[in-house]
Design brief:
heterodimer, A: alpha/beta, six-stranded mixed sheet, two-stranded antiparallel ribbon, elongated, B: alpha+beta, six-stranded antiparallel sheet, 2 helices, 42% strand, globular
Chain lengths: 695, 77
């Protein structure tokens, strides 16, 4: 019955709990703490956009927890709100827990009251009690409970506080006596008229929404409740009559909606005034002071780039040593493996395919990818948990508006640094379909974690290698930041071009919440980013690298005529590749690297090595020598970087784009746009350099 | 009574909402955020390029673009 909201019950006795809440109130933390299921929580509004489920056992009963999308309201203004509302209203969860932010209770009460209107089985979980205490905000939970008529539990979910009591309350929830929200008498009269036609438990609320002209709800009623068609038509008539009655009394659609919303918001205000006391007037002065600096006219943008640069500097400087240790270690093992194969007296080709093909590719991927990821992900998660990312969107919004796009695109770009597929999924936070498509198509201009180790390696080899160590990292950071700025410029430019051509339109407007800054929990961040992100991404890369190594080895070692298949392909690609400053092998590597960007460089190495002498590759100096032997110049290096920044999205990202857009057309466009742009940019750069005779 | 668009209110000043002259989903979103008649909000600060501007609305910080704030009528407090 529920296509988009299926609950996986194990037995009929399972108790279903819906978890609702505003974005950014720690709802996902409550969910994770209760179920132990790992689901990523981020400190920006609208992050939890899909429904997650988990379960826990308490008092020998099985509880199924359904994590609804974070919403400000249940008025079905967006797809998320519609899903959340339909679940609470039609899936009949046994209990609905509304998680609210203790530091911002008044705004959150809006959702609580709307939920109470739909169902009486509500528990309010006032989360972030520790934050409130720190800000000297006191909340009278007992009074709140008696005013709302439902149980209220205070929690600090990130510290595990109050969750035991929450589980107990959920288990023991019986009859509640929730506050009833009364509207103007003329509205109440019409509610009574429509109510007669309905049999549902929450008929009062349904009636109100139907008079309010909520067409989506009418669709949902049709979908979830089996009405006889004659009854349904009768209902439609009554609703029409009620709307007309209201119109006669001077209450048009907008006025009615305002009345309904205002009633709940005013009630929130009244309740909040009764239960919340601010012990200090300046309870959020620290946040305001931070914002005055981090988003100021003078320092906002420089600090943003400085922070980004700092993250990259720590990544580059910190990854050098572990990278060479891991490389030494893994290539040391390679020697033993070779000895082992010699001792086994296996044919040479077996050794070649297993060690030089598969093992070497995997070893490269691990040595080059693991250290930067293990440093970058935790650092980035700290910025995320601090609440800094929405500030980036705030800082850059005007640029996106000029490009006819949404400022939240800055957030999805930030997610793209980790993984473009994640960035594409993140585009759900953008409400306007047109702007969401723009964000999806351009996400690939942000170099993901699979690409920037490649960028770093090339920068170090060709541009900063001659400098002493501390300056080297600093200079590499500057160049890398430059590459990323280029990516941002391309994003804005392409967004603008798309808005003027295939995705015509004016920027739609939106609201952006700047959540309070929160102290990140370093320990949890490290565990979460290493296990959830680093190992996951690395695992995927290795899984793809191993078979890819095999394929490359086969292509490189099976000859047709005098030369290998790989050389044939490369020769075929060479003329075109020359035009964009690459060579056939490099272009071939980018093509074969479609499953995962991480393996582009190892493929290039293998291609070169299969045609020349095999050398030890345990440091970048030797790699550089190999590349230069194969005709690389600084121009080749620049073009590899440019093409790495601007070419087709990887296989995983393409699949994600298909899933998110539900359209092959937009997937193909997302594939073509960065590819064409990359080819044009490389061609222009190469032509200029060659024309000027710089090389 | 001095009624003007919210956009014209300088930073650090407070204003009382009088009327939202926008229809459709944006109006509903603004109502959901608590922007109803007589709500007092404070102008917190401008973003580096001057637009959007951050406002304190019922305890939350919300950034709004100029095309919205030019259509919200307020009364100076």
């Amino acid at each position: 019955m529920f296509d988009n909201i299926k609950v996986n019950k194990k037995s009929g006795n399972d108790i279903v709990i819906a978890l609702a809440g505003n974005p950014n109130v720690g709802k996902s933390t409550v969910f994770n703490e209760l179920t132990g299921l790992n689901q990523h929580t981020g400190n920006w509004p609208g992050k939890t956009v899909s429904i997650a489920q988990g379960n826990y056992v308490y008092n020998e009963k099985n509880f199924i927890l359904v994590d609804l999308p974070g919403t400000y309201s249940l008025m079905a203004n967006s797809a998320e709100e519609e899903v959340a509302r339909d679940f609470i209203c039609f899936a009949n969860p046994d209990v609905t827990v509304v998680v609210v932010d203790a530091t911002c209770l008044e705004r959150n009460l809006n959702l609580v009251l709307q939920t109470i209107e739909i169902t009486s089985h509500v528990i309010v979980c006032v989360n972030l009690m520790d934050e409130a205490k720190r800000k000297k905000i006191e909340i009278d939970l007992v009074k709140l409970s008696s005013l709302l008529g439902v149980p209220v539990i205070g929690t600090s979910a990130n510290k595990g506080k109050g969750l035991e009591e929450l589980m107990k309350t959920i288990d023991e929830l019986n009859n509640t006596n929730p506050i009833s929200i009364k509207y103007d008498s003329i509205i109440e009269e019409e509610i009574k008229q429509v109510e007669k036609e309905l049999k549902n438990v929450n008929k009062r609320w349904l009636s109100l929404k139907l008079i309010d002209g909520d067409e989506k709800l009418l669709e949902s009623i049709n979908k979830y409740i089996n009405f006889e068609s004659s009854k349904y038509n009768e209902l439609l008539k009554i609703i029409e009559a009620s709307k007309n009655n209201l119109l006669l009394k001077g209450m048009d659609k907008n006025k009615l909606r305002d009345k309904i919303v205002s009633r709940i918001i005013k009630l929130s205000e009244i309740i909040s005034k009764k239960v919340v006391s601010f012990k200090t007037k300046e309870y959020n002065s620290r946040d305001r002071k931070l914002d005055k600096i981090l988003t100021s006219k003078l320092f906002g943008i420089p600090i943003m780039f400085a922070l980004l640069g700092l993250v990259f500097y720590i990544t580059i400087a910190g990854a050098n040593l572990p990278s060479s240790i891991i490389a030494n270690f893994l290539f040391g093992i390679e020697n033993y493996l070779t000895d082992f194969f010699i001792w086994l007296k296996t044919p040479e080709w077996i050794h070649s395919v297993l060690v030089l093909g598969i093992y070497r590719t995997v070893a490269w991927v691990i040595a080059v990818m693991l250290p930067p990821m293990a440093i970058f992900f935790p650092l980035f998660t700290i910025l995320e948990d601090l609440g800094y990312l929405p500030r980036i969107a705030f800082n850059l919004d005007k640029l996106f508006k000029k490009a006819c796009a949404c400022g939240k695109q800055a957030l999805t770009m930030c997610m793209g640094f980790g993984c473009n597929a994640v960035g594409v999924t993140g585009c759900r936070i953008i409400d306007s379909p047109r702007e969401r498509l723009i964000a999806i198509i351009t996400n690939n201009f942000v170099p993901c974690n699979g690409r920037f180790p490649t960028l770093i390696a090339i920068i170090t080899m060709f541009f900063t290698g001659i400098f002493a160590s501390p300056f080297q990292s600093l200079l590499s950071t500057l160049i890398l930041t430059g590459v990323i700025v280029l990516g941002i410029i391309m994003t804005l430019l392409v967004s603008k071009i798309l808005s003027k051509t295939i995705l015509k339109g004016v920027p739609s407007t939106f609201t952006l919440e700047l959540p309070p800054y929160r102290k990140p929990q370093i320990g949890k961040i490290i565990v979460r980013s290493i296990f959830n992100r680093t190992l996951f991404v690395l695992g995927r890369a290795v899984l793809i690298a191993a078979p890819a190594g095999l394929v490359i080895w086969i292509l490189a070692n099976i000859n047709i005529g005098n030369i290998s298949i790989l050389s044939h392909c490369s020769n075929l690609l060479n003329p075109f590749a020359y035009l964009i400053g690459l060579d056939g092998y490099i272009l071939m590597a980018f093509i074969l690297g479609f499953p995962a960007n991480e393996i582009v460089v190892p493929i290039i190495i293998m291609c070169y090595m299969s045609t020349g002498n095999i050398i030890e590759l345990d440091n970048l100096t030797e790699l550089k020598a190999l590349l230069i032997d194969n005709g690389w110049t600084w121009l080749t290096a620049i073009n590899v970087m440019l093409f790495s920044l601007m070419h087709w999205p990887c296989g995983t990202t393409c699949l994600t784009i298909k899933k998110e857009t539900q359209s092959w057309k937009w997937t193909i466009i997302s594939f073509l746009v960065p590819t064409i742009i990359g080819i044009i940019v490389c061609f222009v750069v190469v032509s200029i350099v060659r024309l000027l005779g710089l090389i | 009574m001095n009624v003007k668009p919210l956009l014209e209110i300088p930073v650090n000043k407070k204003a009382k909402i009088k009327e939202i002259m926008i229809d459709g989903p944006i109006r509903r979103r603004l109502l959901d955020l608590g922007l109803i008649e007589d709500t007092v909000i404070e102008v917190l600060q401008k973003s580096p390029f001057g637009d959007p501007i951050a406002y304190s609305i019922r305890g939350a910080v919300i950034a709004l673009r100029s095309e919205i704030t030019s259509k919200i009528l307020i009364e100076t407090v």
